[in-house]
Amino acid sequence: MKKIGQSVLLLIMLFIPGIIRAENISENSLNRLMSVSGINKQIEKYPAIIWTGYKKATQNGTKISEAESKKINRSIDDAFAASEILHAIRADIKNNISESEARDLIAWYESDLGRKITKAEEYATTTNAYNEIRKNAKVLLSDEKRVKIAQKIDHLTNASDLAMQLQTRTTQAIFIAAATAINPNLLIRLEPLMAKISSQEQQIRENTKQFIVLSFLYSYKDLDESEMEKYMAFFERPNTIKFNNSIKNSMTLALDSSVDKLLNSLDDMF
Fold this sequence. Notes:
Blueprint: H1 2-19, H2 27-36, H3 39-44, H4 46-58, H5 66-79, H6 82-96, H7 99-109, H8 112-123, H9 127-135, H10 137-140, H11 144-157, H12 159-182, H13 191-199, H14 201-219, H15 225-235, H16 238-269
Helix pairs in contact: 2-7, 4-12, 5-12, 5-16, 6-16, 11-14, 11-15, 12-14, 12-16
């Protein structure tokens, strides 16, 4: 009887992980999380950023016909479609964030402080805010305690790393589009561009980190120190770390795929 009892107990123990397995995130919670965290709005702006960069890169160069310009615009929109990037992020979150974790994240983002911060962060991505950040950089960096908190938030959110990835992929996309527009018959090679970026990586990273910290200081200028510390504590939660890592990893893969799509699309088109 004792042996049978031990066998039954062992069998039960083997099945416990399946019994207590975390519930998968629901579609409703996933939709809410993508919305309240601000991810949807951030990604929706990305194709326009590339198109603006492309226009600046070609405005003083060879005259490009309207027909060719439309083709390139269409290729950028297709390759960097916000819906595709968001789909990749959603899929990764589905695989890594449970329903209970999602509810915990949503509760924070929908709190008074969460809403206040998300709104401030969204405004900080506008052109007006960008100009104000540059204009008030010295003042923003003068408060050492707030600077340290902003630096810690940057570290916890992978913000600088993600910004570096975005900058690199954006540069690649603009280079590909501009080079194709100027000379459709040119064989595009990214290796020289990547070598140049690599040689300047340290300086680019330092500049990126400084601007990210400045943007955080600007975003949170109306928060007192206790509110900033609460925000920092939110990013130290295991659920938030998982969520941010999921976004970073999925965006990296999605943007790499987008650059490949753009190369193939322009190659076929011209």
